[in-house]
Structures are given as C-alpha cells and as structure tokens.
Write a structure and sequence with these properties.
Strands 1, 2, 3, 4, 5, 6, 7 and 8 form an eight-stranded mixed β-sheet that branches. 34% of the residues are buried. The chain starts with 9 loop residues before the first helix and ends with a helix. It is built from five helices and eight strands, in the order H-E-H-H-E-E-E-H-E-E-E-E-H. The chain is α+β, with helices and mostly antiparallel strands.
C-alpha cells in the first residue's frame, strides 16, 4: 500500500475504527505560563525571516515554543523533528512526522512511551489536516501498545505556526478541540502545553 500519513482522509480515520468529535478539550487554562525573554526575543528576531514554508514555520516558530516548554520541564520529555515513523505499512501508518514527543527525556532515537505529535501546515485550513494528525496519533498509540507501554491518552496538534488546534486520542475516541490557540497569546498557548505535559 502506498498510503502514508499525508494521504489520510476522514473516511480513512473512520475505517480505522476511530470516532472523532469536536468539543472543548481544555475548558480553561488555570495557569498561563509566562514566556521567557529569550523566547520573546527569538520570535521577534525570527519575524524578520521569510516564514512561508512548513520547514520555516517548524524551525522559526514551532521549535522555539517546544524548546521553551522543555526548558520549563527539565528531564520530563524530549522531541524529535522530521523523523520517519513507520508503524504499520498495511494500514498506511508510515511516513515522516513533523514532531514526535517522547516521555523518555534522554532518548537518542524514537522510543516509547510516545505522548504527542505535532503536524505543521503552511496554508491548509487546520481542521482539514486533522486526518493526517489523527493517523500519526493512532500510530503512536499502537507503537506504545506494541512495546507494552500504558499511556492513557495521546495528544496531537495541528499548527501553521501562528494558530494551534489540539487533539486527544483515548482508546478509539478522538476529541478535536473546537478552540484555537495562538502565539498572540503566548501565556495561554504555553499553558495548554503545560497541561498536556502535566497529564503524563
């Protein structure tokens, strides 16, 4: 089968036996996280560089945010950028993931337990990219199960660097957050990530 994560449709997600609903995933961010001066300065400097491609968004907008969260949570997790993640070729669960987040903070290569994935898009409407992200989340869930790691929920996010939509996979149920979070309100966005990190 030539299918990969990027080819998944909403129908393909149903065929995996997954049920997707839209709802509020985070009712409120009780503790917004104050961004560091370093993050603010980095994002300000990076605005002067063309940020149109997915690669540019990954490097200039998303990586600084994930690194900021990692700095706030030492020895809690690590992330892999642009790695191939082939889990089940027969199901089409193969290809490259923009970011894979692992609970093993000092992992040198992708190891479970995996807890989240981030999919970067340039111009596509973010909800339209949810099948690809869900497929990657499901692959992470299967990967954990194959390695006998019990992680209750896998989180995902679709972002264009400026706006973020979050998802949660638990069992066969997927929640697609009806809210969007953006870098215009960094404390709130960072707070959402902190809620996710605190969940595992």
């Amino acid at each position: 089968m030539r299918k990969s994560y990027s080819n998944f449709s909403f129908e393909d997600i149903k065929n995996l036996g997954l049920n997707t609903v839209r709802s509020e995933l985070f009712l409120e961010v009780e503790t917004p996280l104050t961004p560091s001066d370093f993050l603010l300065k980095t994002l300000e400097i990076n605005k002067e560089i063309p940020i149109e491609s997915e690669k540019a968004k990954s490097e200039l907008l998303i990586t600084p945010i994930l690194t900021e969260i990692r700095r706030h949570n030492p020895k809690k997790f690590t992330y892999f950028s642009g790695y191939q993640f082939n889990v089940d070729s027969k199901l089409g669960l193969k290809g490259f993931c923009d970011f894979i987040i692992s609970k093993k903070y000092n992992a040198a290569f992708i190891e479970c337990p995996l807890v989240a994935v981030v999919e970067v898009k340039s111009n596509q409407d973010l909800p339209d990219a949810s099948p690809q992200c869900i497929a990657e989340m499901y692959a992470a869930q299967l990967y954990n199960e194959k390695n006998e790691e019990k992680i209750t929920a896998i989180y995902g996010s679709i972002t264009n660097g400026y706006e973020w939509i979050f998802l949660k996979l638990e069992g066969k149920d997927v929640i697609l957050d009806s809210n969007r979070y953006g870098i215009k309100n960094l404390p709130e966005l960072l707070g959402i990530w902190q809620v996710i990190i605190d969940s595992f």
